[in-house]
Each structure stands twice: as C-alpha cells, then as structure tokens.
Amino acid sequence: MAQNGSVRKRGPNILVTGTPGTGKTTTSSALAEATQLRHIIIGDLVKEKNLHDGWDDKLDCYVINEDLVCDELEDLMEEGGNIVDYHGCDFFPERWFDRVVVLQTDNTVLYDRLSRRGYTGSKLSNNIECEIFQVLFQEAKESYPEDIVVALKSDTIEDISRNVASLTDWVGSWHPAS
C-alpha cells in the first residue's frame, strides 16, 4: 500500500500507438519480454471479448466499442505494469499512462509493409495519409501531457531494437508518482 492508502502500481503503463504497420506489436512484444510487463493487444481483446459494434466491410475491421474496451481494461490499468498496443489513443483515460510512444515509419517503408499485409485502395491510402500528416502523433499530444509523449522512428529492425532498449531503460528507472 502506498502512503495515501491506494495500492502501489506494479509497474508503469505504456501506450504504444502509431499507424498500422509501424511496428507496434513487434515493439510491444519485445518490450514485454524485456521488462515482464503485460502486453495487451487491443485488436485481439476486442475480438476475444466481443468489445465491438460489428464489422465494417469498407475498412475491413471491427468497429470497436470504446466504452466496453475501457471498462474491460480499468482494473488492469489501475494495477499497472501494462503495455497497451493500439493504433488509436484519444479514447483511453489520460490517467492510465505513464508513457505514450508513437511509432513513426517512413512512408515508402510503410507502404511496402501494408501492401504485404494485403492493404489496398482506400484502406492503404488512408493509413499512408495518416502517417504523412502525423495524425496519431498530434492525437497523442492533444490527449496526454506532452512530457509523457515520445515519437520514435520505426523503419528498421535496428530502430526497433534501439527503441526497445531505450524503453527498457526507462521502465527500469520509472518510479510511480507520489
């Protein structure tokens, strides 16, 4: 127990966000392995727990129910020690995160990654435009205190390794706010 009677968090909560294809799951998985934090892939959680309002044929994805997702995560986030992996960030409560990481990828690299995943047409162009205009970085800066938001380059395996090492160091030096 902390001095104020609340339970001390078991570790920081980190949001890893960015346009699809920027390496969120790869980075989050490696970081979870290095730090023993819990990796929560929001897309998988939505499917497993039916936290959606149906399927969007145009975008070829589930329409997540943000309230259901937040309700599902509330206790885990209060406990701490989580890495949340999702391409959006503005609906999560600000109080949940100690660090918000926005992965950014060169448009040519991103185009190739998304094409290999089978993205075509508007789904492909919308995601490339999202990256060009830094939509998720802006969303993160508007949704969280600026001092916890970091943008990290994620073009190569070396970038990902460097990012994981840097974030692992940050987790090692993290101390909960009193």
Strand content: 15-25%
Q: What structural category characterises the helix and strand content?
A: alpha/beta
Estimate the helix proportion, in percent: 40-55%
Characterize the main sheet: 5 strands, parallel
- The parts where pLDDT drops under 50 for at least 5 residues are 1-5
CATH architectural name: 3-Layer(aba) Sandwich
Alpha plus pi helix count = 7
Subunit structure: Interacts with small ribosomal subunit protein uS11. Not a structural component of 43S pre-ribosomes, but transiently interacts with them by binding to uS11.
Subcellular location: Cytoplasm; Nucleus
Keywords: ATP-binding, Cytoplasm, Kinase, Nucleotide-binding, Nucleus, Ribosome biogenesis, rRNA processing, Transferase
Main location: cytoplasm
What would you say this structure looks like, in words?
Helix content is 46%, strand content 19%. By secondary structure, it is an alpha/beta fold. It has a single domain (13-161), classed as 3-Layer(aba) Sandwich (Rossmann fold). A hairpin with a 4-residue loop joins strand 3 and strand 4. The termini are close together.
List keywords for this structure.
globular; ATP-binding; transferase; ribosome biogenesis; two-stranded antiparallel sheet; about 180 residues; Rossmann fold; alpha/beta; five-stranded parallel sheet; Adenylate kinase isoenzyme 6 homolog
Task: Give the helix/strand layout.
Layout: E1 13-17, H1 24-35, E2 38-41, H2 42-49, E3 52-56, E4 61-64, H3 66-79, E5 82-85, E6 99-104, H4 107-116, H5 121-132, H6 135-143, E7 149-153, H7 157-173
Parallel strand pairs: 1-5, 1-6, 2-5, 6-7
Antiparallel strand pairs: 3-4
Helix pairs in contact: 1-7, 4-5
